[in-house]
Amino acid sequence: TTLCQEETTMMGGSTTASEKTEEAAKRALAKTTTTTTDDEYEACLAELAKTISGKNRNLPGSVTWEAQFATLQGYVEKLELREFLDNANAIHVAGTKGKGSTCAFAESILLENEVKNVGLFTSPHLVDVRERFRIDGKPVGKREFIEAFWWTKKTIEKELKMDLPAYFRFLFLLGLKIFKDAGTRCLILEVGLGGRLDATNCVRTPAVAAVTSLGLDHVEVLGDTIGKIAWEKAGIFKGGVRVFTSPQVPEAMISLERKKEEVGCELVVARQIDLDVEEKDGGGKIELGLSGPHQRVNASLAVELVKEWATKTKHKGILDAMEKEREKKPEAKLVLPETFRRGLEKTTWPGREQIVRDEHSKNLTFYLDGAHTEESMRTCAEWFSAHVNAKRKKDEQDDNCYNNDGKQTPTGQHKQKMCHSVLLFNCMEERSPKVLLSASVDVLKSKNVHIDTAMFCPPDSSALGLVKVEDDKKNLDWQETCANAWREIEKVKEGLDSSGISSQTDIRASVAGAISALRGKADLVAPKRVDVLVAGSLYLVGDILRQLKKIGFK
Q1: Cα(359)–Cα(517) distance, integer angstroms
Q2: Which of 19, 363, 424, 439 is 20 to 30 Å from 274 by CA-CA measure?
Q3: For residue range 137-188, what is the model confidence (pLDDT) as tens digits?
Q4: Is the peptide bond prior to 527 cis by the omega test (within 30 degrees of 0)?
Q5: What is the rounded distance in angstroms from the CA atom of residue 511 to the CA atom of residue 458?
Q6: Rounded to two decimals, what is the model's pTM?
């Protein structure tokens, strides 16, 4: 055996001592480099956190949004990012609901059509700030982030002798540097807040723009009516740039039309794709990568955006695919090439109507959605109810609908027996928990879904910092306020199910503590399922995903 080993070594069949030493050295160097990069990245986050003021957006005496926006335009010019932004072939998306999903659909369609160097600037992030800067569907690497961060910060402070702009505006400038360095040729910009004075509105010549579904949100900044909010969102309209919109309520549409006339652009209501029509020649039902009936609206808008982008940029591949599809189906109202279909089906967008089955407790399932407006909470509750009722229907058809005496279990008893439903909720203090919770309760009650436990928990993350606070020493006054709102709603509605049975309320000090309690509940009630709807805050959703190790980047 020894002789055979020696012969193999001489012939290169195994690793020699010197090769082992060399490999060990490479591993050590790689480990050192990784450690150094991680340390440098943490240093960037520490500096970035200093740009978060935590101030109320509308405090008397504060610098006006108009003044801050004008200053930001100056930063773009002085950092020599203007030429890149003007030639980035941008897709600019504003709206209240569905902005991120629409951008994700558009990104996926573009990538499926082999468009190179697609950049996506989005907000907020769930776990890692680099999620805000996606290049070809992936968050920017740590090394690229570090280099762009220090260049942006030092250029502003040392060369321009200016103060750093506040958090979101700084991130926008940082994003432009990241995307410029990456050679981005298509830049998808998701508006952060509003539109007219949002940082992303520094773009002067987008290829195409869009407005997703509108609703009441950030009323303290954007206005207290749909009409006023629509006017702010329409602030992204540019002369000569076609704008697509999702179907809107009349009051919102009036504001959009008025802005269209003012700036001189074309406003088009996006045609809705048909997901259910069985087509010949390779067609068929489309299973969107993002679940929920409302995603059809977002997907339809994304399709229009990509088609217009291809027309404006004269992208031969997409235009040829559209023409070929049109020749194949001349009677079709909406041309949808196979690459578009695949893009829609492959779309992913973490934290939006996402289902995660717990690996620790097999009967525990999390239904996560970052819904944080009244209407999105209703949509979220519809989605959750559909899944709970689908499981319930299946249970009723199974053999376990019979008790130990061989008699069929009454339907109502079986519903309660097999599923324990939990709502895990938190919202920002600027929002009304009573409004948000009432919206979800109305839907749940109408769908005969009873919440057995309402749990309230602060996120580890917040808008006030980038450092996760995971201990159990947080102030829980706000969670108590949310819990009291829930109890009051139950009292008014006489319980959340027909029997008038009220749910239990539970307050937990940390996300880890909430998950631990839920796993304990799942183990206790097994084999009954524990279905948990997590909603009200993208920060809470992100922290749940992080704790479950279902999201994270290197």
Answers
A1: 15
A2: 439
A3: 999 999 999 999 999 999 999 999 999 999 999 999 999 999 999 999 999 9
A4: yes
A5: 7
A6: 0.83
